[in-house]
Amino acid sequence: MSHTRKYLKNTALSDLPEPKDGEEIVKAIALPGGNIVEVDCGNGGSTYIASIPAKFNKMIWISKGTFMIVRKAEQNETASSRVVGLVTSVLFEDQIKHLKERGLWPAAFSTPSRGEDLVERNPALLAEDDADGSEELLPDNPNRIGVQDTGSDSSDYEF
User: Fold this and answer.
1) Cα separation values, 38 from 32, 75, 101, 120, Å
2) Which CATH architecture group holds 3-119?
């Protein structure tokens, strides 16, 4: 692996990027192909197309729901008139946490965690504290047959 690729990987994983002037935090909503991604700005359904630079090829993977920092491109900077922005960095969990602590995270993308979301949709999922003090947030799997305890001891079996 060349020095440039190693540097890109280390930078993407360890740096804490913040949006500068002309940049914004967006969420990927579609990947039509050809190193372009459709992004949502989070301000009431505003979407546009952004280009993924070639330096990210086979190094950083973008999927639906990935958060990124995108720089609005000048008209002569992009290959197509449909492409409005350029991806400058892809955000991972630690970087998102840093942006939330600094108050730079958009309110439109502030959603509850998975466990909080489950409880919010179905409060019956939140059970009383177990004996060890942990809370059960997930329901039983309906695809599994539950083991029923008949109350018999192991002494009932003869060997």
Assistant:
1) 7, 17, 27, 29
2) Beta Barrel (2.40)
pLDDT greater at residue 64 or residue 132? 64
Q: What is the pLDDT of residues 61-115, one digit of tens each?
A: 888 999 999 998 776 555 557 888 999 999 988 889 999 999 988 888 876 545 4
What's the CA dihedral at 101, 65, 135, 146 to 10 degrees? -170
Q: Nearest CA to 24 among 111, 85, 92?
A: 85
- Report residue 4 as tokens: 């440039």
For the chain, how far is it from start to end, CA to CA, in angstroms? 63
Tens-digit pLDDT profile for residues 22-57 = 899 999 999 998 889 999 988 777 889 999 888 887
Q: Where are the domains of the chain?
A: 3-119
pLDDT, residue 11, reads 72
Buried-state track 94-111, b at ≥16 Cβ within 10 A, e below 16 = ebeebbeeeeebbeebee
SS3 64: coil
CA atoms of 106 and 112, how far apart (whole Å): 14
